[in-house]
Amino acid sequence: MKDKLQEITKRAMEQIDAAEEMSALNDVRVAVLGKKGELTAVLKSMKDVKPEDRPAVGQLVNETRSAIEEKLAEAKERMEEAELDHRLKSEVIDVTLPAKKAKIGHLHPNTNVLQEVEDIFVGMGYEVVEGPEVEYDYYNFEALNIPANHPAKDEQDTFYINKDILLRTQTSPVQVRVMEKGKLPIRMIAPGRVFRSDEVDATHSPSFHQIEGMVIDKNITFADLKGTLQEFVKQLFGADTKVKFRPHHFPFTEPSAEMDVSCFKCGGKGCRFCKGEGWIEILGCGMVHPKVLKMSGIDPNEYQGFAFGLGLERITLLKYEIDDMRLLYENDDRFLKQF
Ligand SMILES: [Zn+2]
């Protein structure tokens, strides 16, 4: 029995020493100490040992078990250390390498231009007001003197949520909401996102931004409109910028005009940028229609006002000399980081 135990121990020790992987250690554990292991088999044969010898043999078996268990634990520790060592060596970090550059973003060209426009008008005493993008038909059309049969209300041009609610097609409804509050005088701009059922191309997008402006006060004339907008474009495009007003029609202003600025590339001589015209169309404007004032509860005999609206993207494209509006929305890092 003693020889048998020594033999088991010797073989187990050799196998453990030779083991190179955790799985080999486990094999030894199962083969020797497991339920069907050699040492277990020895314990089972104790019944054949003479009763007076049993304590001594039992002790011997226990000693063998402890010795093998201890050896297994040592081997396991050795392997874990070796593995850690290997990992530390293979994952070594060279602290002398140059650091990765932190990529810091910046404001979108649209946001830059919007902030510039806001700064100019805030400097002239205007308030920046925002309104809902999902708007009532009433505010978007009716209160702005756009009748039910107007082509702008066509389902081809407007995203309707239902009969009475839609995605606003312009920022003008914000003017109505401000007028309705009845606090006069008003000096405001309303920038924001608007929606039209347009196909995407170089100059169109179903979602874009407008900046709407409005002044309501006593004794406001077209001269105030001209002076204000002239000052605005001089600050935006340069002190030499000239303006030109062309008669136009908008339902909510009377009279109405479109305003051109002299080309800031060629100074008005005509170039590729202004398509040889010397002038660039920039915004629509006019004196607030008396009907619009009345509908919002303002007496047109006492108060007058002017309003204007411009496309933010149009200004951004002009200022940065970008020739395709889609570039502003594609979020292409290579494009955006130029600005
Ligand atoms: Zn030009």
TrEMBL record:
Entry's localization field: Cytoplasm
Cofactor or coenzyme needed: Mg(2+)
Residue ranges of every copy of the Aminoacyl-transfer RNA synthetases class-II family profile domain listed in the record: 111-330
Signal peptide residue numbers: none
Coiled coil: 65-92
Root EC class: ligase
Keywords associated with the record: Aminoacyl-tRNA synthetase, ATP-binding, Coiled coil, Cytoplasm, Ligase, Magnesium, Metal-binding, Nucleotide-binding, Protein biosynthesis
Cofactor binding: number and manner: Binds 2 magnesium ions per tetramer.
E.C. number(s) listed in UniProt: 6.1.1.20
One Pfam family here: Phe_tRNA-synt_N
Record-listed Mg(2+) binding positions: 254
GO molecular function annotation: phenylalanine-tRNA ligase activity
Main localization category: cytoplasm
Gene3D superfamilies assigned: Bira Bifunctional Protein, Domain 2 (3.30.930.10)
Catalytic activity from the UniProt record: tRNA(Phe) + L-phenylalanine + ATP = L-phenylalanyl-tRNA(Phe) + AMP + diphosphate + H(+)
Subunit text: Tetramer of two alpha and two beta subunits.
Sequence similarity: Belongs to the class-II aminoacyl-tRNA synthetase family. Phe-tRNA synthetase alpha subunit type 1 subfamily.
Protein name as it appears in the record: Phenylalanine--tRNA ligase alpha subunit
